[in-house]
Amino acid sequence: MAKKVTLHSDTSNNLLLALQQAQRESGYLSPALMVEIARSLRLPVNAVYGVASFYSFLNMRPPGRNVIRICRSVPCYLKENRVIIETVEREIGIRPGETSADGRFSFELTNCIGLCDRAPAMLVNSDAHGDLTPSRIVQVLQSYE
Questions:
Q1: How far is it, in rounded angstroms, from Cα 28 to Cα 85?
Q2: Residue 96 vs residues 21, 29, 85, 100: alpha-carbon distances, Å
Q3: How many Å apart are CA 15 and CA 35, to the nearest integer?
Q4: Which helix (H) or strand (E) holds 122?
Q5: Residue pair 67/126 in contact by the 8 Å Cβ criterion
């Protein structure tokens, strides 16, 4: 059963804020939670789903304990982010969009994470890691339980 989320506003102007708040409180945006938000804000469910699915930092399924987000924007692409993606896939045994069976990691590709000057870059939870190399990735991933 979805956790009850307290919304600070009943207007559609605050949909993104409501989704972020709901995710902070529940960990992810379940279908039942999106229906509740739609009802509270008097919006169609498809409008809530559309916003929730547009933003890559909103989770629509339970994430792993550690969420890896690798930048796929042009600066990281030009700095061979494919090697970084392949190294993460090999080290944790999952592909982008998946969560490891033990729940330790979720792996996502995302647009710019604001680390273009340190490309290729990734976030693990809210920790920024830049100037990545395959050997550095192994060290970074080992530091997360």
A1: 24
A2: 25, 19, 8, 11
A3: 12
A4: strand 122-124
A5: no
- pLDDT tens for each residue of 80-122: 889 999 999 999 999 999 999 999 999 999 988 888 898 899 9
Strand pairing of 66-71 and 105-110?
parallel
Q: What pLDDT score does 2 carry?
A: 47
First CA to last CA distance, the chain: 28
- Between helix 134-142 and helix 81-92 the angle, nearest 10°, is 40
Can you tell me the distance from the alpha carbon of 117 to that of 125, in angstroms, rounded to the nearest whole number?
20
Contact 77, 113 (CB under 8 A): no
Distance CA 34, CA 133 (A): 39
Give this prediction's pTM: 0.79
